[in-house]
Amino acid sequence: MNTNIFIAKTLWKKRPGKKGLSNGSSVIAGVSVAISILVMILAVAISDGFKREIKNKATGFSGEILLHSPGVDVTTDQYPVNATPSFMDSLISMGNVSSVTSYAYRTGIIKKEDAIQGVLLKGVDDSFDWSFFETSLSEGQLPEISDTLKVPQLMMSKRLSGMLGFSVGDRVLVYFIDEVVKVRQFVLSGIYDAQLEDLDQSLLVTGLSFVQDVNGWDGNEVSGLEVKLLNHKFLDRSASEIESLIENAPVDESYFVTKVDELFPHLFDWLRLLDFNVLVIMLLMIFVAGFNMISGLLILLFEKTSMIGVLKSLGMRDSAIHKIFLSRAMVLVFWGMIAGNGIAIVLARVQSLYKLIPLDPANYFVDHVPIHMNWGKLLVLNIASVVLIAMLLMIPSLFISKVSPDKTLRVK
After folding, report:
1. Residue range 104-129: average pLDDT?
2. Is 205 helix (H, G, I), strand (E, B) or coil?
3. Environment class of residue 4 by beta-carbon count within 10 Å: exposed (0-12), middle (13-18) or buried (19+)?
4. Hey, where are the domains in the chain?
5. DSSP 361
């Protein structure tokens, strides 16, 4: 067998008349692999970027899991729940729970000159995680949450402040419609830009006690509890564990569990559609790369027909001959994948740092193409691509089995 391999290497170096043919087809095949890997990596990185950005926005507004009164919306101001249920200690000590925060909602109206806008006031306490609003802060500062303030502070979205003409430091009058109209004055401490039109065009954030006062609630009555998780991947499991915790609580208390993807179904449906599109792109790119590699290998086999005949006449099996050609093809695949990975990582890094490609936030919920490189996914993608292309390259072995030594050896 070693003799046969030596002969194969010797015959390989003897090229037929058209010397540039195999080189050209090899270059095309290698470039095809590089482009396919490049497109797949960028598609996965962009998809993961969108998922991370939008999930962070959605959970920044509401947390991953909400506990509220059964049968009503999470923003209810009619049916409060207990802010310190009997299972609170068990809930906080759950492995995947990061924090539990009380919240209260109240709808109202802002009027400035001739402009009128319906708003949703959200009250939070000192335990609220402000990290999302810190990153989204456009002007001013976060509102101070204190009962000692003479005039309470609030945050408003950039879109809403632009519609109504408010600036940081302005006094904001909010009207609450009950049997008697209540009017409360706030100071606009900060403006945030979350780029989620359905939410930030109406949401105001202030202290919990001020909303409780408007709703006529005592200090232990709230609209619900927000639960933030350490790992979003275990959202469903954590929601099931919380439901079991409520059912087995020592005191019969009614809380309904709502997950963030149920609260914002249109956002998460869009992300699922994006995942499907990425899958289609990956399959197409694998097919294109595999097809070009098969074409290049077939051209190479046609050029080396005489060599295949010699090797067969020496007793080499079809599978052994195919391994020789497959090893040559896999070298092209290897270099193509290195080039594709390198270019993709550079492009992704440049976009991540400089945000060169902008987007319309009204349609995409972000103002630039987001990038998130998951190195585990990148490794799996490369391994899967190599395996699939190698499987596709088994197809040309059918050509080798049909080569007849007695015919090929007569070729001059």
Report:
1. 91
2. strand
3. middle
4. 2-58+267-408, 70-254
5. H
Name the H helices within 165-248: 197-200, 208-215, 235-247
* Dihedral-angle region of residue 315 (phi above 0 means left; psi in -120 to 50 means alpha; beta otherwise): left
d(CA 15, CA 254): 81
Q: How many CB atoms lie within 10 A of CB 397?
A: 17
Tracing tokens 């609220």 back to the chain, one arrives at 128
* Tokens representing residue 330 in the block: 């896999």
Tokens of residue 249, six digits = 């609580």
Question: Nearest 5 degrees, angle CA 322-CA 324-CA 329?
Answer: 90
Rounded-to-integer distance, Cα 384 and Cα 381, Å: 5
Q: What angle do CA 120, 122, 126 make, to 5 degrees?
A: 170
Distance CA 224, CA 227 (A): 10
> Residue 163, Cβ neighbours under 10 Å: how many?
15
Whose CA is closest to 301, among 329, 276, 278?
329
Phi, psi at 153, each rounded to 5°: -105, 160
Distance separating alpha carbons of residues 104 and 212, to the nearest angstrom: 7
Please tell me the total number of residues recorded for the chain in this structure: 412
C-beta of residue 202 within 8 angstroms of C-beta of residue 89: no
Question: What CA–CA distances, in Å, run from 269 to 45, 57, 73, 110, 180?
Answer: 19, 15, 20, 32, 41
Residue 189, Cα to own-chain centre: how many angstroms? 32
Residues 6 or more apart whose Cβ sits within 8 Å of residue 161: 167, 188, 191
Say what percent of the chain tops pLDDT 90.
51
- Rounded CA-CA distance 76/69 in Å is 8
The position carrying tokens 């037929």 is 16
Chain segment 344-395, per-residue pLDDT in tens = 999 999 999 999 999 988 788 888 999 999 999 999 999 998 998 888 888 8
User: In 113-207, which ranges are continuous DSSP H helix?
Assistant: 131-136, 158-164, 197-200
Q: Tell me how far apart the alpha carbons of residues 21 and 8 are, in angstroms, rounded to a whole number.
A: 20
Copy the structure tokens of residue 412. Answer: 């001059």
Measure Cα distances from 200 to 117, 156, 266 in Å. Answer: 13, 8, 16
Specify the DSSP class assigned to residue 49.
Answer: H
| C-alpha distances out from residue 199 to 208, 314, 365, Å | 19, 75, 11
* pTM of the shown model: 0.85
Q: Which residue's entry shows tokens 């909400």?
A: 66
Closest alpha carbon to 350 in 53, 51, 42, 40: 42
